[in-house]
Amino acid sequence: MASPAMRGREGGTIDELRASEWVAERYRRIGLVSMGDDGSYFQWFDITRTRVSVTASRVTIAGQPMMLFSDIIPTAVVPAEASGSVLWIADATDTTADVRGRIVATPMLTPSPASIRANSYTYASRYADGAIVTTLGRFARRGAAAVIMVASASVDTAFAVVASARGRGAYDVDRAIPRAGNGSDRVAPPPALGTGFTPSFVVHSSLRRLLAAGANAEISIRLERFTVPSVNVIGMVRGTDSRLRNEYVLYSSHQDANGVRVTMEGDSVHAGADDNASVTAADLAAARAFVRQPGRRSVLFINHGSEERGLLGSRWHAAHPVVPISQVVAVINGDMIGRNNPDSAALLGSQPPHRNSSDFLAMALRANALTGKFILDTLWDRPSHPEGWYFRSDHLPYARVGVPALMYTTNLHDDYHTPRDTPASIDYPKLLRMAQWLYVTGWLTANAPERPKVDPGFRLER
Q1: φ, ψ dihedrals at 95, nearest 5°
Q2: pLDDT digits over 119-176, tens only?
Q3: Mean pLDDT (the chain, rounded)
Q4: 306 and 442, same domain (yes or no)
């Protein structure tokens, strides 16, 4: 699943579909009952993708055509129409200039340490994002027609990484569980010209002299929107108890990763071995065990599609479940379970405000005591943690609709979302212990006399 042949399994691409077929074939060999569309293992859904059109858009500076995402990076998915001489602002901290209706160009500001997000992406890309946010903040609500930011030397080194990320655009799924608690289940219409963010761009530092001289710029940014397929892969083991077999324990993973991107250290494939082939391997092991010895309750195994694009597959299935959502008693979701200290792990959803079932948590803690005996890192489950890790995996839509849900993880690392996340980097003895922990949690839940209850008054809002 994490081999180079899978090409990083990017959501909404043929590579993700190839990986999905691979997972379905493993389900078939193991003996899972197919629970997808038309008797298959596949539950299909459409991704709505909106991005800057590189064919319909055009930017020139001093008459020179700029190649989108190579010479100039649109920083947001917004349309733009502007032309005229550039107003050079030598210092973006100077807010006295009248920029209304003008195309402004300015050197990027150095971001403060506090504005550089403390997450596990490369420092160069985080620095670039911080510089973009810091500089644009100086032009908020001042009426500029467009803002062109000239990269510093540090941002120039991350130019290709920023371009690769921003060029992909925005992804969503219609009629699904909202991204946020107060959100809509509908895909928003694409932004209209003149609405939303001020159109903004990043250019290489080599263009500074041209822009500082007040060169003429012509900007015409058009958007394109289209749908592409993605898929959840779903199998089931029928429970043995005639009273409980219509209740389901749900094992959750995702088969997508981040595709083929900028070359780093000689490799461009984001193999996604830890994220999230490690969990798929653990879930397949659990599936084999349950086929050999079923529990009293039935067990669903779901590889969700396009998790990396915004939890799209889990948001879709939670809204369109293959069994009534009221009959799903618990979700055992894993995300990255094969790295870091061999004796530590994290269980997200184990403390308020994220904990939604003390009953289910007790089963998970008992399973840990019986298997991996991991020391649990509680920092990652706190709402104050800068990663917001609880809100970034496939248990979240189920928790939003009131299903007891936990996320098992060994946390982020420096190889996260890079080509370095390969099978050779996995700690396989640790992965085995994590797989045993996930399995035993499911076994205890599938055979408990009563289903785990949702804690009274639980309300998940961020």
Answers
A1: -100, 15
A2: 556 778 889 999 999 999 999 889 999 999 999 999 999 999 999 999 999 999 999 9
A3: 95
A4: yes
Instruction: Give 396's contacts (C-beta < 8 A, 6+ positions apart).
Output: 311, 314, 390, 405
In a domain, 179, yes or no: yes
Whether 428 and 312 map to the same domain: the answer is: yes
Q: What is the CATH number of the domain that holds 100?
A: 3.50.30.30
Find out whether 346 and 364 touch, Cβ atoms under 8 Å. Answer: no
The answer to whether residues 293 and 395 belong to one domain is: yes
- Comparing CA positions, the residue from 55, 134, 149, 71 lying closest to residue 103 is 149
**362 in the same domain as 441:** yes
- Which residues form the domain of 436? 4-49+227-447
Residue 361: pLDDT band (50, 70, 90) is: very high
Q: Are residues 77 and 125 in the same domain?
A: yes
Percent of the chain, pLDDT > 70? 99
Q: Is residue 454 part of a domain?
A: no
Does some domain include residue 166?
Answer: yes
User: b/e string for 339-352 if b means 16 or more Cβ within 10 A?
Assistant: bbeeeebbbbbbee
Confirm whether 459 is domain-assigned: no
The residue from 200, 221, 242 where one domain ends is 221
Query: What's the rounded Cα separation, in Å, for the pair 235 and 279?
Result: 16
Place of tokens 């130019």: 159
Same domain assignment for residues 196 and 237: no
More confident residue, 461 or 33: 33
Contact 70, 77 (CB under 8 A): no
Q: Do residues 301 and 235 lie in contact, with contact meaning Cβ atoms separated by under 8 Å?
A: yes
Residue 182 confidence (pLDDT):
85
Pick the last residue of a domain from 203, 221, 239.
221
The secondary element (H helix, E strand) that includes residue 200 is strand 200-203
Question: What's the CA gap between 411 and 434, in Å, rounded?
Answer: 12
Other C-beta atoms closer than 10 Å to the C-beta of 25 total: 12
CB-based contacts of 221: which residues, under 8 Å, 6+ apart? 52, 57, 59, 74, 78, 79, 80, 81, 199
pLDDT tens track for 370-419? 999 999 999 999 999 988 999 999 999 999 999 999 999 999 998 999 99
pLDDT of 263 > 90? The answer is: no
110-119, 209-218, 408-417: least confidently modelled range: 110-119
Provide the domain count of the chain: 2
